[in-house]
Design goal:
Blueprint lengths: L7 H13 L3 E5 L18 H4 L2 H4 L2 H6 L1 H17 L5 H11 L5 E4 L5 H5 L4 E3 L2 E8 L5 E3 L18 E5 L8 H13 L2 E5 L11 H7 L3 E6 L12 E4 L2 H15 L1
Parallel strand pairs: 1-2, 1-7, 2-3, 7-8, 8-9
Antiparallel strand pairs: 4-5, 4-6
Helix pairs in contact: 1-10, 6-10, 8-9
The structure holds 2'-O-acetyl adenosine-5-diphosphoribose.
Length: 254
């Protein structure tokens, strides 16, 4: 099977599990947004191939030199995310939610594309890039309204702005973590789409699902740390074509 022609028996198996399940949850990562033009972090073409996350994506690095982190990482991220639209895979998950076939999406992405596609219950594990927060007065500013002429950009009060995203070294908001853990513990099926499952605690969600008896289905062109261990099976392929084919298979069975 190629990345754009997913294996029909596996699609049938996934569709049957989803239709039989009471609760389905999706865990998504950077891979789901690759077809929207946003590069992943790891692997071929990944962001961490060209820049060192500890030098640019750690909270200590931001505190040490916010101008450098804005110049090298955040400004480019803004330009890439500004141009991105949801793809087939984001739309498929939004469709599943509307059909009551999906309870919620737990995403590690900060691009807001699940909501743009129409998903309403999205747990943003690592925050959302659409907003910036002043590190001094805590006022929020829409990222779209931030003036990038002088870096780092500043709030009206003079404080430095930072994205409402989690840097390495920061804690996941406790309410997000709690809700994600509850959803993972109580789901019957977990779809794990486009994540290398290498960053914790997000990567522990499939383990929680698996330990509580859920069927864990991966959608990824590559094997991951979960494959053959925590996930029941992997539908090899790109998220867009696989999710489109999965929706078609579900519709044929409805
Ligand atoms: P990674 O970049 O680690 O992994 C992306 C995954 O997507 C890989 O397993 C790829 O094989 C897969 N992939 C690539 N193209 C794909 C496609 N078209 N369709 C489906 N899958 C595809 O991204 P994450 O697992 O999301 O955190 O990374 C987790 C966290 O690490 C991020 O949230 C970020 C990063 O450092 C922070 O910045 C805190």
């Amino acid at each position: 099977m190629t990345a754009d022609k997913p294996d029909p028996p596996l699609l049938e198996r996934a569709a049957a599990a989803i239709l039989k399940a009471g609760r389905v949850v999706a865990l998504t990562g950077a891979g789901i947004s690759v077809e929207s033009g946003i590069p992943p972090f790891r692997g071929k073409g990944g962001l961490w191939e060209t820049i060192d996350p500890m030098e640019y994506a750690h909270i200590d690095a931001f505190q040490r030199d916010p101008a450098k982190v804005w110049r090298v990482l955040i400004k480019d991220m803004k330009e890439v995310l500004d141009r991105a639209d949801p793809n087939e895979a984001h739309r498929a998950l939004a469709w599943m939610e509307k059909q009551n076939l999906l309870q919620a999406v737990i995403t590690q992405n900060v691009d807001g594309l699940h909501q743009c596609a129409g998903s309403t219950d999205v747990i943003e594990f690592h925050g959302n890039f659409a907003w910036q927060r002043c590190i001094k007065c805590k006022a929020r500013t829409a990222t779209a309204a931030v003036d990038l002429c002088r870096l780092p950009p500043r709030c009206r009060c003079g404080g430095i702005l930072r994205p409402e995203c989690i840097f390495f070294g920061e804690l996941i908001p406790p309410q997000c973590l709690r809700r994600a853990e509850q959803l993972s513990a109580h789901c019957d099926v977990m779809l794990v789409i486009g994540t290398s499952a290498s960053v914790y605690p997000a990567a522990s969600m499939p383990f929680i699902a698996n330990q509580n008896g859920a069927t864990v289905i991966e959608i990824n062109p590559e094997r991951t740390a979960l494959s053959g261990k925590v996930s029941d099976f992997l539908i090899a392929g790109h998220a867009g074509p696989v999710m489109k084919a999965l929706v078609k298979t579900i519709v044929e069975r409805l």
